[in-house]
Amino acid sequence: MKNFYITTAIDYANGSPHLGHAYEKILADVIARVKRLSGVQTHFVTGLDEHGQKVQQGADAEGIEPQHRCDRIADEFKEVLTKLDISHDDYIRTTEDRHKKVVSELLQNLFDAGDIYQAEYEGFYSTRAEQFLQEKDKVDGEWPEIFGEVTRITEKNYFFKLSKYQDWLIKHINQTDGFIHPEFRKSQVLEFLKEPLNDLCISRPVERLSWGIPLPFDPQYVTYVWFDALVNYVSAARYGEEDFSEYWPADVHVIGKDILAPPHAVYWPIMLQACNLALPKQILAHGWWTTSGAKMSKSTGETVSPLALVDQYGADAFRFFVMREMTVGQDAEFSLERFSSRYKGELGNDLGNLVSRLVHMCHQYFDGNAPAQELSEDLEKGLQSKWGEVSAKVLEFYDTFQFHLALEEAIGFVRAINKYADERAPWKLAKSDKEEDQKALATSLATMLEGLRLANELLAPVMPGVHAKIAECMGQEPAAAWAGRLEWGTRIEGVALGQKMILFPRD
Ligand code: MSP
Asked: Is 20 in the pocket of ligand 1 (CB under 6 A)?
């Protein structure tokens, strides 16, 4: 059976993981979890991009082998994935044999087909960006800072015939709905394609760079980073094996906007087309997190790195924050104040307090068992019908990658439960012996439990840990699939509840 195959960019093995890397993995993870909960068989792959000049230079500076350095960095990145509760099925590293084999095979095929040729190249070269530059890359007559030192060099290299496929690509992008998401990025790619494409230099001479995959048809050269890195998506999909079609084509490549055009929206589709391989269905380009400086300062003057918040507040609060705060595709500013306000407000006050006071009242008034709903008056009906609207919207927002809105709705529903509680005021009803009031007390707690159970279902993709804890408080198993769990009325009446817990402690 064909899997829903979702990938992220593979991170460069030339530094430590940061907020940008973390966000992208969380975004892809939430999409993967939504799919799994919706009953779709999913394959989620992330990994590490290990070749190239900077990796080699980093290793040289430390006086160690590049592979040794990559192994250490891979451990660091993987540790962050574990900390963030990322549910990837595979982690691909470009120094693995399974990947090198596929890169060689594709290069040889393209060489045999005449799509790769050798030519002399003279041009400006940026060591930092590992790319040849053109006059048009200058800003106000100067090379921008991002390119570092730029020198003029001449060398023989191998080139891939990008230009041959330009018209085909423009047509494909125009004709394929949703190929590039969000829509506004599609126009940027088409704008880029208005200029004639230069063929892509795909090699580096071994004497200049040895840390790479040798070209199968000329061992004096190694493969240039993009031709190596992009291929990871098909290597991880088991290219060349019988079950390749269970994974490929990818359903979504999740990447940042900086590597959309040209790498993912131009090089990659053309490489696949030239290799007679199907194209991914969608490229999802997210925006950038900006921070005022790499670190953020607390009011005390101390500085804090965004990833340190994971240790302090837990993966779920962090995952919630980044998904709640960023509109997919747009940039967002990361600030400690914003984090703190979401943590205390939506998580602590709205959700956390509901869980603790509700479980507490069930223990206090019903010996820890979920009471039955005995009445169905306007207040109960109102909350139930709100659930109908909210759940439809949240699922729609999840499907269209509007996670900030999905969470706004889900938390909005939690607030509606709190409002219902204030109106029914079970703590007052508990003081009365009247039969009517006792019925209303049982009803109010049963209704709140059902509401919370449902809200918790929708939080599962974003806060899997908190979801499991809330399920435990309510004597439920965490959700493996949503089927049959999202309808109001699958009550948990009579179930023995767990102990109350503080989900979002104040520091
Ligand atoms: N190795 C290449 C990708 C090859 S994919 C076949 C690369 N690596 S990277 O480590 O520089 O970036 C990895 C991902 O992190 C990219 O998608 C990039 O956009 C993303 N981010 C890096 N910094 C970011 C932010 N500040 N904010 C959000 N994401 C950003 O590019």
From this structure: yes
